[in-house]
Design a protein that fits this description.
The chain is mainly beta. It has 3 helices and 28 strands. The structure holds CU-O-CU linkage and copper (II) ion. The site of CU-O-CU linkage has 10 residues, from strand 2 and strand 27.
């Protein structure tokens, strides 16, 4: 791929190609992997994506505002062929905080919000539009590529009248399986490729409902059936997607490192897990292993871990906070091994893993991509307020 980025903003920017295992110089972290692209200037990103799948891109400079005001898009790398799938659709799901006049509310980076769930909006769009009607045809098979591009909103999608089968997570094919309780759980930055057998009634509409937040369920979109029924031309058996060329971590040899997620508001309005407010830099609310790195990335960030190139590692992520965190590693995909000691079925590959309050999750990967890679929470308020660190692969 060669992408020419022209900055027509009044401030510096970069583009991060989220989930793509690319060379560090193309990773788009300002100060760290490149100088920010100044207003009026251009930058050419050039890399060969090693994996087919559903990825996305967004700025990594002033991310709260630039992503929060809509700079994001889907990046799809196609497989050579996908037998048995008649319809392939991507939904970039974003949320916005709008006034009753439909204007974006300012006040990004509110400290109170940053110490809690982050900036959750009040209006959700699919590919930038409200009340999306996805036209479908009975008898077909739909591959729906779901991308959560929101700053902070977590989504749990269920499909009225349909049984979703997850065939890929964060761009990496997995063992096809039904999600727990039939709901596809997506934290910010997470993706899922869902296969739907379109066996609804011709002429009917079926809601796709997000009911993650209790008492606040709403329809994200509807699947709207045409009047016809098209008998399937392709074979009925599901052909699994081809695996991407990921190195398998040898768990017998893997070194384990613990990363503790700390901070945030507790019940009584106290900050937790960092010895109170002592020793925290201004604007920091969150920390990893007692250290808060704030902002969007910058020059001279010290690594918290140095990993040997080509070696397998387990990262044990311990969420000591009362909040949810989708934790993202740049430049690599990892296998999700276990959650609170229990093996995770299918051990799917991912680049972002969602931790519930108090969760401990083990992930494993081969540190095969040299560079200084960000590891941060993708609730952008949490990232910029300290839940970020740097892993060096040398
Ligand atoms: Cu989409 Cu540093 O992340
Ligand atoms: Cu977080």
């Amino acid at each position: 791929m060669r992408i020419l980025v022209e900055n027509r903003l009044a401030e510096g920017t970069t583009v991060h190609w989220h989930g793509i295992r690319l060379p560090i110089s193309m990773d788009g972290v300002p100060g760290l992997t490149q100088a920010p692209i100044a207003p009026g200037e251009t930058f050419t990103y050039e890399f060969t994506p090693p994996d087919a799948g559903t990825f996305w891109y967004h700025p990594h400079a002033n991310t709260l505002q630039q992503l929060g005001r809509g700079l994001a898009g889907a990046l799809i790398v196609e497989e050579p062929e996908t037998p048995g799938i008649e319809r392939d659709v991507a939904w970039v799901i974003s949320d916005w905080r709008l006034t009753s006049e439909g204007q974006l509310v300012g006040g990004f980076g509110n400290a109170m919000e940053a110490a809690m769930s982050g900036r959750v909006g009040n209006t959700v769009t699919v590919n930038g539009a409200l009340h999306t009607k996805e036209r479908v045809q009975a008898g077909e098979r739909l591959r729906l590529r779901l991308i959560n591009a929101a700053l902070a909103r977590i989504m749990a999608l269920r499909f009225e009248g349909h049984r979703p089968i997850i065939i890929a997570v964060d761009g990496q094919p997995c063992e096809p399986h039904e999600p727990e309780n039939g709901r596809v759980l997506l934290g910010p930055a997470m993706r899922a490729d869902v296969l739907l057998e379109l066996n609804g009634e011709p002429g009917r509409a079926y809601e796709v409902i997000d009911d993650f937040y209790q008492g606040l369920s709403y329809a994200v979109a509807v699947l709207s059936y045409g009047d016809e029924y098209t008998p399937r031309k392709s074979p009925n058996a599901l052909v699994p997607l081809p695996r991407n060329p990921l190195a398998e971590p040898d768990l017998g040899r893997a070194e384990t490192h613990v990363l503790k997620l700390q901070g945030g508001m507790m019940g009584g309005g106290n900050m937790a897990g960092m010895g109170g407010m002592h020793g925290m830099s201004h604007g920091a609310t969150w920390a990893i292993n007692g250290t808060s790195m704030t902002g969007d990335g910058h020059e001279g960030m010290p690594p918290s871990l140095t990993l040997q190139r080509g070696q397998p590692y387990v990262l044990r992520l311990q969420n000591e906070t009362a909040w949810w965190h989708p934790m993202h590693l740049h430049g690599h995909s990892f296998r999700i091994l276990s959650r609170n000691g229990a093996a995770v079925p299918y051990r799917q590959w991912a680049d972002t893993v969602l931790l519930e309050p108090r969760d401990t999750v083990d992930v494993a990967f081969v540190a095969d991509n040299p560079g200084d890679w960000m590891f941060h929470c993708h609730v952008t308020d949490h990232q910029v307020a300290g839940m970020m660190t740097l892993l060096r692969v040398a």
